[in-house]
Design goal:
By secondary structure, the chain is α+β, with helices and mostly antiparallel strands. 20% of the residues lie in helices and 42% in strands. The chain contains 4 helices and 21 strands.
Length: 320
């Protein structure tokens, strides 16, 4: 019995010593492999696309990982704007270079310029990052001289920074027009019409709203006096304006914004919309931590938006 215990003890010692020798040998070999890797200089990836960056780094035995996206007006969407380690640093082959990618410039909504003076409109465009485009001048019986009659793109349209906005500006009344003629207001929005008539000799009189779902709410359907009728100074124009029936469900434009929480791994982002049309998936992508998601959507009536991260509901929003 004593000999059997001695044999077992001897076997355990041999196994322990062998395991220790194996671990020490493995560590020694790993150190040799690591030390055998060459040192390389990190190249500059700024301004390159992800594909270009991957190809460029592969020539230096380095790897790329996108960790975030940021708005940046100086670099096009999809190009690298920052990296870690920095360009010029010395690293071992096989190092992962983490990069931040541009998601382009921020979205701008075109401001409403109709009814404003040209000088004021130019200032507004500059403040929001848009440019004054072609300025066309025309005579007008409604708009005072140097005030804006119309614009392109229209108010509230989505635009990128730096685009041009074309304007039509009033020259005022022509000397060749001996009489005042009632302008055609049918089809115009009442809000725009109020601005157009500001400062003119025409006033808005009685307004009556009637249900009409075939046009946008606030559209002028009929007017009295009628278009092109000769009028005198101070004439009042009576209007019939469209409104939506009570059971009409309006399609609305919404913008959904979400910033992916921080962490180490990419996350699957899924966005669902539930409205009068039912529930539908409108977004299904994987993103790095810190990524900012901004996307427009259309909803019918009251809507609910659900945001899931890795199939877990993290946020729920309602839109009336």
């Amino acid at each position: 019995m004593l000999n059997k215990l001695k044999n077992l003890t001897r076997t355990a010692v041999i196994i322990a010593v062998s395991a220790f020798v194996f671990v020490m040998t493995l560590n020694f070999m790993m150190k040799i492999v690591i030390s055998a890797k060459k040192e390389v200089m990190v190249p500059d990836l700024t301004g390159k696309t992800i594909v270009q960056g991957v190809n460029f780094l592969s020539e230096h035995e380095l790897y790329l990982k996108k960790v975030a996206e940021q708005f940046n007006e100086d670099y096009p969407d999809g190009t690298i704007i920052d990296q870690q380690p920095r360009a010029g640093m010395i690293v071992k082959e096989g190092k992962i270079i983490r990069v931040i990618v541009s998601s382009g410039g921020k979205v701008i909504f075109v401001p409403e310029l109709i009814g404003k003076q040209l000088r004021e409109a130019t200032l507004i465009l500059r403040q929001v990052g848009l440019l004054l485009g072609e300025v066309t001048k025309t005579y007008s019986t409604m708009i005072k001289k140097d005030f804006i009659i119309s614009q392109d793109p229209a108010p509230e349209e989505i635009a990128s920074k730096g685009i041009m906005v074309n304007l039509v500006v009033s020259r005022g009344l022509s000397d060749e027009i001996p009489v005042i003629v009632m302008p055609n207001l049918i089809g115009k929005n009442i809000r725009d019409t109020r601005k157009m008539l500001t400062g003119t000799n025409i006033r808005i009189g009685r307004m009556r709203m009637i249900p009409d779902n075939t046009v946008l709410e606030g559209t002028i359907l009929r007017q009295d006096p009628e278009p092109d009728e000769i009028i005198s100074e101070g004439t009042e124009v009576n209007l019939i304006i469209a409104k939506k029936s009570e059971d009409y469900k309006v399609i609305k434009n919404i913008n959904i914004y979400y910033e992916v929480s921080q962490g180490l791994m990419d996350k699957a982002i899924r966005i669902f919309i539930e409205d009068e049309q039912g529930e539908r998936l409108i977004y299904d992508e994987k993103h790095s931590p810190g990524t900012k998601i901004s996307m427009p959507a259309q909803v019918l009536g009251k809507a609910k938006v659900r945001i899931l991260v890795n199939d877990i509901l993290v946020e729920e929003r309602e839109y009336d």
